[in-house]
Amino acid sequence: MEDKIIKYGILSTASIVPRFVKGMRLTPNGEVTAIASRTKEKAEQAGKYLQIPLVFDDYHALLEHPDIDAVYVPVINSLHYQYAKDALLAGKHVIVEKPFVLHAYEAAELFALAQERSLFITEAIKTPFLPLYQKVKERIDSGEFGAIRFMTFRQSYTGGSYIAGWNRQKEFGGGVLYGNEAYFFRMAEYFGGKILSCTGTASFPGNEAEDQCSLSVSLENGSLASLAVSTRVLFENGLTIYLDKAVIEIPDYWKASRAVIRPQNKEEQIIRCPSEYELQYELKHYNTCILEGRNCSPVNTPDMTIRYIRICELLYQSFENGGQV
């Protein structure tokens, strides 16, 4: 099992693809052998730039190739469901870029189909696999700083592909909620237990998808957490965890490599966990799951993915009447 290499194909030449390829090349059991685009020119350009041997100008031609074991799906959000389903029906394991799908019933169907066909499927969420979080959680779980009372998650960006093109269109699943929900919900539960309730508000420029959102959740351990996302203004991105006896600051929480602990009446402490590349940890985990014959990740479970998408659906329904879910 340790020597087996899982051969991946990628559906799309999206801007995130080079990051996936780099992360996979740092794992011991996976390699990217194929890439597809809607045009031959784009596929060939990406194949040459990323040194991927097989290129296709048709997504289904890639799915039908017998030498491909697994597929990464980073197409536009509204197409995640269909291409993930097509990949499973073609006998491929599947990693779907976040958001997994746009509707909870679609997520449930995909997980059931993967189980039926003895295939693996997951939503790509890197945060719980980052080594820094494991060390921070160990310190919190030791009890030395008391209990978590409140967490604030902050993410902002005013440029790049995330605020252009289809990302601005509601019908394609654009907007900052679907772009950030997986990190927030997953890490809030990582530290605070299951989400019990969620409220939120968002701003919509004209008929476009939301460009800002603010969410608040209550958690199983009695703590609260909030998320602020904006593409209008920049603020100090990161995660702040407030405990009885300390405050923990984690800059750029979605790719965290450093945490600053500020205990009451004591000198601050710094935890550093530099990584060669942050995507490698989740991809190594997914490869292990495939090699072990799992249908899903025990870390990013189907229950989590389905619940998070259901919360998003309810939030979008609620934005018009005040945001109560």
What structural class should be given to the helix and strand makeup?
alpha/beta
Major sheet: 8 strands, mixed
Tell me the strand percentage band: 25-35%
Q: Give the total of beta strands.
A: 14
Kindly give the count of domains. 2
Q: State the end-to-end distance.
A: 46 Å
Report the CATH superfamily of the largest domain. Dihydrodipicolinate Reductase, domain 2
What does this entry show, briefly?
This protein is an alpha/beta fold. Helix content is 33%, strand content 26%. An 8-stranded mixed sheet has the order 8-9-10-7-11-12-13-14, covered by helices on one side.
Describe the protein.
The chain is of the alpha/beta class. It folds into 2 domains: 119 residues, Rossmann fold, CATH 3.40.50.720; 144 residues, Dihydrodipicolinate Reductase, domain 2, CATH 3.30.360.10. It contains 9 helices and 14 strands. Strands 8-9-10-7-11-12-13-14 form an 8-stranded mixed beta sheet, covered by helices on one side. It has a 6-stranded parallel beta sheet with strand order 3-2-1-4-5-6, sandwiched between helices. Strand 13 and strand 14 form a beta hairpin. Helix 1 crosses helix 8, helix 5 runs antiparallel to helix 9 and helix 7 crosses helix 9. The protein is globular and about 60 Å long. The mean pLDDT is 95.
